[in-house]
Amino acid sequence: MTGKSDVVARPADAPLVGDETPPSGSAPAPPVAPVRPERGPDAPSGPLRTADEAVIRALYLEHAGPLLGYTLRLTDGDRLWAEDVVQETLLRAWRHPEALDPARGPIRGWLCTVARNLVIDGGRARRARPPETGDAPLLSVADERAEDEFDRALLSWEVAEALGVLSPEHRAVLLETYYRGRSVAEAAKVLGVPEGTVKSRTYYALRALRVALEERGLVP
């Protein structure tokens, strides 16, 4: 810590995460309080402090809900653990403003990576404790099978974000041919373009998607 405390408080005018509209087909995430630095003797004041709180508020409002839902899956539904991970993740984003630079790519992927690492580290710490410490039900979270599940969940999230940077035409052709399993002829009919156009768009869309994934460190 460098003068910034981990005290947690929800802004009076900020909605609970549980009140946000969840993605279609998913259960609403339980509420989690946003993080906010506590004012101490060395804490900034005036405009600087206001700017800090604005950053925390923005991070919370935009990312806390989806991040909590993701973290709940990683912690096998352990809400308290997931909330701790979300709060620590948002605090780390606040302490590392360079991660918020849009030029470095979407922050959501960075947040998911931080949260995943925190869960894995926490699971390993629980596994390292003697059985009498009482964390036996949580030990499976950090085993290899669980880590594979973490990887798949993170990959699906970040691939979805990578698809979002493609042009509408490239994104549409990949959705039809890869995600909906349509043949070239079927995709051409759905999209209203010649089959040759589907083939060329698919080729260039895959190249663009690979670049987006490389920027996120998901492919070598």
Distance between the termini: 34 Å
CATH 4th-level superfamily of one domain: Winged helix-like DNA-binding domain superfamily/Winged helix DNA-binding domain
Helical content band: 55-70%
Oligomer: single chain
Assign the CATH class of one domain.
Mainly Alpha
Q: What fold name goes in the CATH topology slot of one domain?
A: Arc Repressor Mutant, subunit A
The radius of gyration over CA amounts to: 21 Å
- Report low-confidence residues grouped into runs of 5 or more: 1-31, 33-51, 131-147
User: Percent of residues in beta strands?
Assistant: under 5%
What integer is the average pLDDT?
Answer: 68
Assign the CATH architecture of one domain: Orthogonal Bundle
Number of alpha- plus pi-helical segments: 7
Largest sheet: none
Please give the number of β-strands: 0
- Helix and strand pattern: HHHHHHH
Shape: elongated
Helix/strand class? mainly alpha
Write the layout of secondary structure elements.
Blueprint: H1 46-74, H2 79-95, H3 107-128, H4 144-164, H5 168-179, H6 184-191, H7 195-215
